[in-house]
Specification:
alpha/beta, Dihydrofolate Reductase, subunit A, 8-stranded mixed beta sheet, 22% helix, RibDG_C
Amino acid sequence: MSELTVDVITSLDGYGAAEGWPGFWGMEGPEYFEWMASEPTDYTVLMGRKTYELMSGFASSGAEDVGPLDSLPKVVFSSTLSEPLGWRNTRLVSGDAVEAVRAMKQDGATLRTLGSLSLCRALLTAGLVDRFRVVVFPVVNGATGYDNIYADWPDVRLDLLDQKVFDGRLQMLEYRPTVLDGPPGAPAPA
């Protein structure tokens, strides 16, 4: 069955990263890594140019373990990159990402995003996201945070599908998102 899952990690106040903090805010643990390793790997990874450049750099340098990502099919959306791409199993789409993902879903592909906040926002706004999964790290990055996950999102109702706690501190929350035209009960836009 075709399904698109948007996966993000975030501080409690909604940032995807923070200046001076290590990856995973230094709070990753064995239960979290075990859960990530146990996830099915029968999907296509969707990402934008910046995420592609970061992750393919990790893969080519060996600086970080990219796990099963190396062998998974990947699609990168960019109008500035050109073929051939250096990371194996990666296809470039330079056209409209929303239309390309809509077509992939019609073809029955199982899809998941990696980073790429503007891509995730566009896919959510277009109503293409079936699952929104967030892992919340117990830190507030008010002074150092950047990449606000929810900046410029539409209003969205989230229906809880699953929840887990890892290592006694990380919360995974999985939702079915519904994009709203505005707050419930508000008059429809003219």
